[in-house]
């Protein structure tokens, strides 16, 4: 099975007991559709000593987690994102759905400038929307106070 997560990616756990934690992928098991993330899904294993030099005891180790329970964290925008595929310099590259930055290390420089432009544009749009919402609230606020004041005058 083809997986969009590769060894070395930073991922965010979106489901399960470790929801909200981030970590680095150390191994990918494509046949089982699982990934091994360091310090995520830590289980305790009781290990028996195999020889006299070996020590037994309780060992903590990371167990694989279902690949559908993690999302790749974009190195440019820093957000957990789904993975898109696009063509850069004639090669198929994994890209961020939110900012179109490359997730593959070889092509990060080629797409980083474009990604920053899209991030700035989306931030400007967000700032404009917030400003418009604040203006609407400011316009509505005096109307509400006038109604209350007229109600008090009538009761007096």
Which stretches of 5+ consecutive residues score pLDDT under 50? none
Class based on secondary structure composition and strand pairing: alpha+beta
C-alpha termini separation? 77 Å
Largest sheet: 6 strands, antiparallel
Task: Give the SSE string.
Answer: EEEEEEEEEEH
What number is the mean pLDDT? Answer: 83
Instruction: Tell me the fraction of residues in β-strands, as a range.
Output: 25-35%
Radius of gyration: 26 Å
Total E-strand runs:
10
Share of helix, binned: 25-40%
Strand order of the largest sheet: 6-3-2-1-7-8
| Shape by Cα distribution | elongated
Number of domains: 2
Q: How many helices?
A: 1
Care to describe what's here?
This protein has 156 residues and is of the alpha+beta class. It is 31% helix and 31% strand. Strand 7 and strand 8 form a beta hairpin. The chain is elongated, with a radius of gyration of 26 Å. 17% of the residues are buried.
